[in-house]
Structure formats: C-alpha cells, structure tokens
Design brief:
327 residues, Rossmann fold, 2 domains, 11 helices, 15 strands
Length: 327
C-alpha cells in the first residue's frame, strides 16, 4: 500500500517518506479500513517534530490520528461491517500506524459509522477537534441555559465548541484575534464575538454576561487567559482547557479563582473517559445525520505533499482542516 512514514523526529521535509509499505491485516477485534482521506492535527505535527513521544518501537511511524474511508475486511470476533463507511479516530494513539496511508487496521470501536450524506474529507475532520470540543463543552454539565465563553473561537477546536454550546442551548460569547475570525465565530453560531485586541476584554465580556458572570469557559490558552477567566466567571464557574501552548507552565491566579470556587478541567481527548467518548460519538452521529455541524476544510493535498501539509499546520495559517487524500 502507499503510505507516509518517518523513522526519526525532525522537520517534515527531512523525515517524511512517501512510498510503499506492507498492507496491514486486521487482528482480533479489528477492522481494515481503506482510507479515502486523512487529516493533519497539531498533535500529529508535534509528534513528528519530536515535541511529543512518537513511538518508534516498530522502527517507523505512519502519522495521523484521524481519517475516513470504507471497511474492507474484519478480524476475528467482529460482526460483518464490510462496506461500511466510517470515520476513524485515535488511529496512531499508542500505536505506530496512523491514517496517512491507503489502509489502516484499528480496533473496531475506533471506526465509527459515517452517514452516506457526509463526504470522506469531512469525516476525516471529526476525530480530535470535534470530540475535544464536545468534551470541553459538556464536562461541566449540560450547557442549556448557561453563558459559555469560547476563546480562540475560530480555531480548530474553538470553532466546534461554539457549535456544540449553541446546539446545547447556551448563550455563546466568542473571542478571536481578528475581525474576520470574529465573523467566523458568529457564522458558527456565537451570539457575540469579541476581538480580544480591542480594549478591555473583561469589561466587554462583563457587559454581555451581566452581573452574574460567565458560567463556563472553553479555553485554548489557559496560561494566557487565566486572569481574564478568573475575572469574568461567576461563583462556582468552570473552565475546560485543552491547551496552554504560549504558557506551558502557567501562573494561576489562585486566590481570585479560589474566592469564586472555580473548577478547572484539563481535557485530553485520547484518554478521556470512555463514557465521554461514547456520548460525543452519539452526539456527533446525530449532528451529522441532520447536517447540524458546519465544517471548514482549508487545504486538500496529495500524499506526495504530506510535508507541505505538516508545514502548513506549523505555520498557523489554515482556517480549518488540512486534508490529505489517501485513496
């Protein structure tokens, strides 16, 4: 099969190889998926660059967690799913073979039915960003009736967090760094969108949220935004954060948060509770069946240009998912 792989960490153009590898066979409990599309997430890029353990126990890594395609065969103990359209998540978590290939064998539970109306490229966008966003919105309870603040609302996760909060019945305040990104958040369903570069963000959020404050924050940069979160949250408010890239060892405003009984939840999609994954998958399936989620695909590249796809993610330019066609 055709695949992309690397045998050492480093710059994409130096370490990513495009060539032929032996096609995998599904083991017990697994399915073999003929992939049509693979998406590049920031975590995939960080693994390849060496910032996170990639896992070279087998001598090589085929990158990427997320993809979509058609089940071609099943392993022992799996009901007949041959011909089923699926989206795949966590393909390379704890294993060396991900979705940047023509085929991948994964545990059957990691291949989720994809409605016939949904394009494979959209299916490849779902795993990490959509499931992370769902967990960030729901791990503090049902959003209905709450005021939810989503920071980085035009980003990969924030864009979906806005939508999950809106679908869940929350009033959504979004923040972003440009007027164009604020408009993206409004188009995704935010009630208000604020450019965080324009004046006092705390004051502007307060005018929208009212004296009670914000109920819940979905945060892309915990360390940078901690003071703002502490200021705008109500008593017993909550924060769900999935990143703190700009301040990896954040200084926490302990007393302002303590005096409000604030709860901070860290979210990592790979090993979040199985019950949370099951809830997210059920809600994703329902949303896909009813076209209730919007998706953004910024770039589509061939496998030969996998390095360019990684470099694009590293640049921070894409306003959406970067897809590699694998068929």
């Amino acid at each position: 099969m055709k695949a992309i792989w690397y045998t050492r960490s480093g710059p994409a153009a130096e370490v990513l190889v495009c060539g032929e590898r032996k096609m995998p066979k599904p083991g017990p409990g697994e399915v073999l998926v003929h992939l049509h599309a693979s998406s590049v997430n920031p975590s995939d890029v960080k693994k390849r660059a060496g910032a996170q353990p990639a896992g070279f126990e087998n001598g090589y890594v085929i990158p990427h967690s997320d993809g979509a395609g058609i089940i071609e065969s099943v392993g022992e103990g799996v009901p007949d799913r041959v011909g089923e359209r699926v989206w795949v998540y966590q393909a390379q978590y704890g294993r060396n073979c991900g979705t940047c290939a023509e085929y991948v064998a994964v545990p059957s539970r990691l291949a989720v039915a994809l409605p016939s109306r949904v394009d494979f490229r959209v299916g490849a966008c779902i795993g990490i960003p959509v499931m992370t966003a769902h967990r960030c919105v729901y791990n503090a309870g049902e959003p209905k009736g709450k005021t939810v603040l989503v920071t980085g609302a035009a980003g990969r996760v924030g864009y979906y967090a806005v939508q999950w909060a809106r679908l869940g019945g929350a009033t959504v305040i979004a923040t972003a760094g440009t007027d164009a990104n604020c408009q993206t958040a409004l188009d995704a369903g935010a009630d208000e969108a604020l450019n965080y570069r324009d004046g006092s963000l705390v004051e502007r959020i307060g005018k929208i949220a009212g004296p009670a404050g914000v109920d819940h924050v979905v945060d892309v940069e915990f360390g940078v935004n901690a003071d703002t979160s502490a200021a705008v949250l109500r008593n017993c408010g909550t924060v769900s954060t999935y990143s703190s890239s700009l301040a990896p060892e954040p200084v926490v405003p302990f007393y302002p948060m303590m005096f409000k009984n604030v709860t901070v939840n860290m979210v990592l999609v790979y090993n979040m509770p199985q019950a949370a994954k099951n809830r997210a998958i059920a809600d994703i399936t329902r949303a896909l069946e009813h076209d209730a989620l919007q998706h953004r695909i910024a770039e589509v590249r061939d496998m030969e240009d996998a390095a360019g796809a990684h470099e694009s993610i590293e640049s921070g330019r894409p306003g959406g998912c970067v897809i590699i066609d694998t068929e």
